[in-house]
């Protein structure tokens, strides 16, 4: 699975990972995140509210290279 996700991420700017709850989607993607990338989880209510209420400021805070891993 890791190899497939890496190949997809090199070809496409965005990928959606879906599946049932509690099967390891977040853990897998966090593990695959590059060391120099910040993982941003929209599961965190504070971060989700910030992204929803201040989208421009949110994107400034997580400026390019945008963390390609939004969970």
Describe this structure in words.
The model has no long low-confidence stretch (mean pLDDT 82). The chain is mostly helical and 71 residues long. The protein has one domain. It is built from four helices and no strands. It has helices at residues 2-11, 25-32, 45-53, 55-61.
Mean pLDDT: 82
User: For the CA atoms, what is the radius of gyration?
Assistant: 13 Å
The percent of residues in helical segments reads: 40-55%
Order of helices and strands: HHHH
Main structural class: mainly alpha
> Sheet bearing the most strands, described?
none
How far apart the termini lie comes to 17 Å
Count of DSSP H/I helices: 4
Quickly count the domains.
1
What fraction of residues sit in β-strands? under 5%
Runs with pLDDT <50, length 5+? none
- Tertiary shape: globular
Number of strands: 0
Gist of the model:
With 71 residues, this protein is an all-alpha fold. 48% of the residues lie in helices and 0% in strands. It has one domain (2-61).
Q: Characteristics of this structure?
A:
71 residues, mainly alpha, 4 helices, 48% helix
Topology:
Blueprint: H1 2-11, H2 25-32, H3 45-53, H4 55-61
Helix pairs in contact: 3-4
């Amino acid at each position: 699975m890791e190899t497939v996700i890496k190949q997809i991420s090199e070809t496409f700017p965005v990928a959606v990972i879906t599946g049932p709850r509690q099967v390891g989607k977040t853990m897998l993607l966090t593990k695959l995140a590059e060391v120099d990338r910040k993982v941003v989880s929209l599961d965190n209510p504070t971060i989700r509210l910030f992204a929803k209420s201040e989208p421009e400021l949110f994107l400034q805070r997580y400026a390019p290279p945008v963390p390609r891993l939004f969970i």
